[in-house]
Design goal:
Helices cover 56% and strands 2% of the residues. With 190 residues, it is an all-alpha fold. It has one domain. The protein has a two-stranded antiparallel ribbon with strand order 1-2. Helix 1 packs across helix 4, helix 4 runs antiparallel to helix 5 and helix 4 packs parallel to helix 6. 40% of the residues are buried.
Amino acid sequence: MQDAQGFWEHEYPNPFVTGVVVHALWAARAAGAEVPSVVFRRAADALMSTRGSGGRQTYRLDGQPPDNEKSSMSRTAICELALFECGRLELKDVAAGVEAYWKYVDRLEAVRLCDYHSDGRLAGFFYFHAGFHTLEAARALEGPAREATAKRFRERLLAIPEWDGSYVDSHEIGKSYGTAMALLLFGRTR
């Protein structure tokens, strides 16, 4: 359920779940589902209220300012895409969100197999979640930028499988989730 402020939540209301839900509802609407415009308007207002410079988004709604670019890299692109789909931003903002991901993805890769927030900010268990939703944002880009991002994702995925061909997001989650997410990513790179 969308809360009174316009956010959706998993454990608590937050921008990254809101961005994901907006994108899913946008796709549902494009496929013919009836989604009231007020839902998008409220979500866009919510995301704009937590958006900082460069599209940085906060992680939690606890009154803190938006995170720095590195800490926001896993949610910037999907939130920028949601705001673009709601008519609040331009495609160049989505492209900048995708680039923020690539700027810091090696830092996220470094904590992919580690415990919860092992670098003090980034969490390895968001590796495939961040990748999938950044790729969704990149699929909205046009021409060479879209294909270049798909190629980058394919190359990265081909470089990180485990010895048995599976993928691990975090040892806490295991191979099933990581492998399923990697397969979803491969499928979206076409």
